[in-house]
Amino acid sequence: MVSDQGKPLIADFGNVILKDLALSFAPTTTSGVTHQYAPPEHLVAESMRVATRQCDVYSFGMTVLACTLLFEKLYRALTGA
């Protein structure tokens, strides 16, 4: 996610673009996205390079969902509940 001032707040380093910076990251996958968290429109080849705030919100929501489900599973495993 990006603040109103353009500062990156949360990023998926499999699909991040940093402009005007000397530091860069090499993609670790051939498609450049983390499929589990990517919005559906990023899985279509023609729109892979289009990044919007809506895409960020979708990806953040998927991250929250994954963390919530993982927390519940870990809690049950640790407590026997």
UniProtKB/TrEMBL annotation:
<feature type="domain" description="Protein kinase">
    <location>
        <begin position="1"/>
        <end position="81"/>
    </location>
</feature>
<dbReference type="GO" id="GO:0005524">
    <property type="term" value="F:ATP binding"/>
</dbReference>
<protein>
    <recommendedName>
        <fullName>Protein kinase domain-containing protein</fullName>
    </recommendedName>
</protein>
<dbReference type="GO" id="GO:0004672">
    <property type="term" value="F:protein kinase activity"/>
</dbReference>
<dbReference type="InterPro" id="IPR011009">
    <property type="entry name" value="Kinase-like_dom_sf"/>
</dbReference>
<dbReference type="InterPro" id="IPR000719">
    <property type="entry name" value="Prot_kinase_dom"/>
</dbReference>
